[in-house]
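During the second half of the funding period, the structural biology subgroup turned its attention to how the target accommodates small molecules. The most pressing case was adenosine-5'-diphosphate, which had performed well in the primary screen but for which no bound structure existed. We therefore specified the complex as follows and requested a full 3D prediction, including the ligand pose.
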Amino acid sequence: MSNILAIAHKELKAYFASPIAYIVIGFSSILFGWFFVNLLYYFNRLSLQAGAGMGGPEAVSVNDMLIGPLFLNVTVILLFTLPLVTMRIYSEEKRSGTIELLLTSPLTDVQIVLGKFLGAFVLYATMLAVTLVHMGFLFAFGNPEWRPVATSYLGMLLMGGCFLSLGLFVSSLTKNQIVAGMVTFAIFLMFWVINWIATFTGPTMQAVLNYLSITEHLNDFTKGVIDTKHLVYYVSFIVFSLFLTVRSVDSERWRG
Amino acid sequence: MIEVQHLTKRYGPFTAVDDVSFKVEPGEILGFLGPNGAGKTTTMRVLTGYMPPTGGKAIVAGFDVFEQPIEAKRRIGYLPETPPLYPDMTVRDYLTFVAKIKGVPRADRKARLDSVMERTRISDMATRHCGKLSKGYRQRVGLAQAILHNPDVLVLDEPTAGLDPKQIIQTRELIKELAGSHTIILSTHILPEVSQTCQRVVIINKGKVVAVDTPDNLTARIRGSETMYVQVDASGADAQGALSQVPGVRQIAVTETRGSVTGFEIDSEPGRDVRRELASAIVTRGWGLLELRPMRMSLEDVFLQLTTQDAAEPEVAHE
Ligand SMILES: Nc1ncnc2c1ncn2[C@@H]1O[C@H](COP(=O)(O)OP(=O)(O)O)[C@@H](O)[C@H]1O
Ligand SMILES: [Mg+2]
């Protein structure tokens, strides 16, 4: 465990020693703010219409009309920022030769992979924590239910974990950061849009595609529901990607 | 302390290390000598558990590197060909990280760090970023990293490559100092390097062990005969006749003629220095002595000589 923490700590330091951490956190909080303000404006209009009895919905819920759509929009941010976080994880170690230090130290491959994942995850959690400021405004000036907000954040953590573990795996396959970043982005995009074609296919295919879609599983979380089905999906996605990463690091050793 | 048995490593169809076996006794400094591409780095990477061998095995401090990698790695300090530094970390942060992953207990960490930095003379660089260090300091931080957890065995891949002469001497001193408490294997492609530091030498070429011996014995064997280059201001035939009369000269060959100047390569009997006799033979005849120097054997010549020798006496190759 202390080995995992040592590596996670080193990874975090590396993020904050380079511009990556600041770009990722800055970029995501600006975009989050933009989505937030837009949805807030839209929500205000709806509320006014409802209040004036102009045929809008009777009572407009902050949660349904603001928080839910907000988090679904925010997944776009992850699509762009998380490849930046993961692309250097392994590529950089291979390029600078520090991989020789890690692989000849008394560490297991699993410890190395978990440490690296944990480091990226803590950076991501920090990025999410910054957005809590926006939520603070909602709670200060409105009266949203706290539960859907909390489950949304849980869902976001899990979904981000999927993206990060996948990105980590891609990074373990190449020495080239740019390639790692592009491929990661392409795969994220695929998982993101996979259910768009679901409506045009048969019911079985539709179910499968929806199941595969990373974002589809976030819906219930934004409504305040923690369904084990989704938990299982996210957790097994992460575990499987990390397992693939360990395998890839191991086979790399054999090739030399 | 280190035992390598029939180690073979292939990269795809290419065999980089071919059935290499050797032993290193506790406290010994073993030199691993070979030209570029001989397979030194590959052998060391297998030895340190960085990559598994295709065949054979490596036992370090009693642990098979591939059966019990964690136990073996706890006892190995490794300085790769390029020091494995994180450019964005300060020297102290870097060494702290290394201490953690090498399992130095938290309570000992600070004292250990300070003493190792002192020993490798990097204390005044503690707060400098690794990426901003000079080549000499990078190498020293690499060495500090390798000895941090006080390993039984040190594996150093070309520890003096790319250093200036002063740094080379300092590094050699440090390695000799470390020898008492550690077993050391170091690689180099420079012949004199091993005679300076090592007690025993394994010579490797094209993935195969060519010879295992002490540096003194090896130098003696390599100097099967000594060759001088002599340049004289005299006609070729006269000079050749006169010089072949000098006692101790075995063979003489004209290698160059330019006007009245003639160049010779002169082989003498083993262990016999004929330079004085050659010089006086030339000078007493009133010729001009333009050049007289022993011809250095290149490492390639050494391998050529050893490989042809060992074909005749194969028992030498395996001690
Ligand atoms: N990862 C690799 N893949 C393929 N060939 C390699 C690899 N590493 C080294 N080689 C080849 O193996 C041979 C031995 O290399 P190396 O062990 O680095 O030699 P040395 O350290 O003695 O210079 C060289 O011919 C080199 O090109
Ligand atoms: Mg090498």
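Two results from this model are relevant to the next phase. The domain at 2-220 of chain B is CATH 3.40.50.300 (Rossmann fold). Chain B has twelve helices and 14 strands.
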